[in-house]
Amino acid sequence: MTGDCSLVLRTPSDLLAALPFLLGYHPRDDLALVGLRGRELDFGACLDLPPPDRCAETAREVAGAVARQRPDAMVIVGYGPPRRVTPVVLSVAEALRAAGVRIDDVLRVDDGRWWSYLCEDPGCCPPQGLPCPPPDSVIAAAATYLGQVALPSREHLADQVAAVRGPARKAMVAATERARTRFPELLDDVRRIRRAGRLAIRDAEKRYRSGAALTDDEVAWLGSLLVERGVEDYALNRTGPEEWRVRLWTDVVRRVETAFVAAPACLLGFAAWRLGRGALARVAVERALSAEPGHQLARMLFELLTSGIPPTLVNRRAG
Questions:
Q1: Contact 81, 110 (CB under 8 A)
Q2: Which of 133, 148, 209, 267 could form a disulfide with 17 if both were Cys (CB 3.0 to 4.6 A apart)?
Q3: 12-151: which CATH architecture?
Q4: Segments making up each domain of the chain, as ranges
Q5: Number of other residues whose CB lies within 10 A of the CB of residue 47
Q6: InterPro entries under this entry (predicted)?
Q7: Class of the CATH domain delimited by 160-313
Q8: How far apart are CA 51 and CA 242, in angstroms?
């Protein structure tokens, strides 16, 4: 994940206060990786702590992905007890050094305290650890002011792309049935499907750019049209790093029926990735793969995110 918090970090405590805002949620039982350019956060990534027998494999994968980002330096942070964290963070640090990446620090966070594996000065880093910065720290306040959000957990982030329930779901079931009755009119000509799809996409973009939203029938119709590969490609090629696009595709992916989830989830993932919101991109792509494991674009985006390719390498123009 890449991010632009524009926060200047002077101490490990500053970094720990800023990290949840870079990731989008508060890590727990996780391995976090922070790339630095000078004293500013450049990118961050977070993954579940692997089991002991996968430490070496995880370290190799991480080193390969991080090397592509070309950071000035890295900080590794493990969240959890020492028996879980220590083997992982030390293996990752060794692999990154072997790949030519400078390691500024290796930290562990657990139960409101943090420790450094590289600092041996008890006056600076006592054996009992140091308290983590409070939720209302200066760094947290600055990140919030800049519009960054840190949700309580990754589960809360996944909830942002989960299907709507209750009356909203019942309304979408009815709207989807109405869309099904319209769609056969286009089946005899793929060009008509694509024309209808382009029109629906441009209308949706106009709505969300202005702060409005689609009706249930419009969401259901757009979802059914996106099943056609040419329509999906058209939407993808128009997707740039604008926040309103995240709102658009979040709304659509939450409201469409499961059979139509994959395409808008991919479009959400791509928009989030372009904005540097890698954690949101990953949960969106995971939802796409859960709905349709063989979806081609979802698999491609999953590989892109796993490989650690930064969005700065992709230059797509809306058109």
A1: yes
A2: 133
A3: 3-Layer(aba) Sandwich (3.40)
A4: 12-151, 160-313
A5: 17
A6: DUF4192
A7: mainly alpha
A8: 38
- Model pTM score: 0.78
The structure tokens 């306040």 sit at 141
Judge whether 298 and 273 are in contact, CB under 8 Å. Answer: no
DSSP track, the chain: -B-----B--SHHHHHHHHHHHHTB--SSEEEEEEEETTEEEEEEEEEPPPGGGHHHHHHHHHHHHHHH--SEEEEEEES-HHHHHHHHHHHHHHHHHTT--EEEEEEEETTEEEESS---TTTS-TT-EEPPPTT-HHHHHHHHTT---BS-HHHHHHTTSPP-THHHHHHHHHHHHHHHHGGGGTT-HHHHHHHHHHHHHHHHHHHHTT----HHHHHHHHHHTTSHHHHHHHHHH--S-HHHHHHHHHHHHHS-GGG-HHHHHHHHHHHHHTT-HHHHHHHHHHHHHH-TT-HHHHHHHHHHHTT--GGG------
* 191 vs 47: CA distance, rounded Å: 43
Residue type, 304: L
